[in-house]
Write a structure and sequence with these properties.
single chain; 356 residues; alpha/beta; THUMP fold; Rossmann fold; 2 domains; seven-stranded mixed beta sheet; 10 helices; 14 strands; elongated; EC 2.1.1.186; methyltransferase; RlmM_FDX
């Protein structure tokens, strides 16, 4: 019998951080369990008595180190490469009496961990999905066309002969396979860091929020801007940007007429009036950055912000929790805070904040 578990994708190498986060959050929610993972595997299994109840208690939007949150419904090992479909259909049929309240899935996603070993399964995942979809539809498990109102079925290959079946709620999970938005580096972008801010806007703001919060002629500041990747994203979204950095910006940004480059220290500069946006990707200790970000909200210097916290090599979940708690406390006002380790992040997390 398959153990009840959450299955969460993450950045390879950050499994201990995700495991620690799930352990703490699950215990606080009253659903204690234990995490099972291997370093650099790209995923964590969290074994718990009732994975469905835990999933409801831990909204995906609140998880920081999880790219995707799934409820595992079957663990199939020793699969025969000549016929992997039959045992999967049998596993789904056997779930009728296990409390699974799904008559039909709205979409099929065949995935693999985003790790060195997992990427070797990408070809299998693509070809197997093409074979499994018609079999699922014939058996009545998959709608004839993608239906966003129904749960999604995930087939997670962790080896050629080992796959896990899992489901996700479209309203409580990442919309992208593996939780990774596919963004392309624009040839005009000054640096690859532009992808981090583009992903943050897609991840933290839904379509309605982006329409309301990201508009032409908004006033923004970019702290630690050089060479200008985040400034470029703000400018492309129609904003007027004050770029604060003692280092040089790409000349094309200054020539745009929408960017004012101030050679100053992002930790000491302050605006003369409240700005619509402040963004910050300065390389500094996370505690110092969190404190400065709190000052911006305490002094009402911005209406919303996106910033990065560069994490230490050890105790990264603990440091994350401490810095976020300190940031909210030092802001001296109620805030909406969303944080995640994005796909384009490395040893850092990205935070969105705005007053409630």
């Amino acid at each position: 019998m398959t153990e009840s578990a959450l299955l969460c994708w993450c950045r390879a190498g950050f499994e201990p951080e995700l495991a620690a986060e799930l352990n703490e959050r699950a215990a606080i929610a009253g659903h204690p369990g234990y995490a099972r993972t291997q370093r650099n595997s790209g995923y964590v299994e969290f074994i718990v008595e009732d994975a469905n109840a835990l999933s409801r208690a831990l909204p995906w939007s609140q998880l920081i180190f999880a790219r995707q949150k799934l409820v595992r419904i079957a663990d199939l090992s020793d699969l025969n490469p000549a016929d992997r479909i039959t045992p999967m259909l049998a596993a789904l049929d056997a779930l009728g009496g296990s409390g699974l309240n799904v008559s039909m899935f709205g979409e099929l996603l065949v995935e693999h961990p985003d790790s060195d070993e997992g990427k070797q399964l990408s070809g299998l995942a693509r070809s197997f999905g093409n074979a499994l979809r018609p079999a699922l539809r014939k058996a009545g498990w998959l709608s004839k066309t993608d239906d966003a109102r129904r749960p999604r079925l995930h087939v997670a290959f962790v080896a050629g002969d080992h796959a896990m079946l899992a489901l996700s709620d479209p309203l409580d999970s990442s919309p992208w396979p593996l939780g990774i938005p596919r963004l392309r580096m624009h040839p005009d972008a000054p640096s690859r860091s532009a992808l981090k801010l583009e992903e943050a806007l897609l991840t933290f703001l839904d379509a309605d929020e982006r329409q309301r919060r990201v508009r032409d002629n908004m006033q923004a500041a970019d702290l630690g801007a050089a060479p200008g990747g985040w400034t470029w994203v703000l400018m492309r979204n129609g904003m007027m940007v004050t770029s604060v950095d003692n280092g040089p910006l790409k000349q094309e940004l200054i020539d745009s007429g929408r960017v004012d480059h101030l050679r100053a220290d992002g930790f000491t500069w302050q605006p003369r009036r409240t700005l619509d946006w402040m963004v910050c990707d300065m390389v500094e200790s996370p505690a110092r950055v969190a404190e400065r970000m709190a000052t911006w909200f305490r002094e009402n210097w911005c209406r919303q912000a996106i910033f990065n916290l560069k994490l230490p090599m050890k105790k990264r979940w603990e440091e994350t929790r401490i810095c976020l708690e300190a940031f909210e406390h030092q802001a001296h006002r109620p805030l909406i805070v969303r944080a995640r380790q994005l796909y384009h992040d490395r040893e850092e997390i990205t935070v969105f904040a705005t007053p409630k």
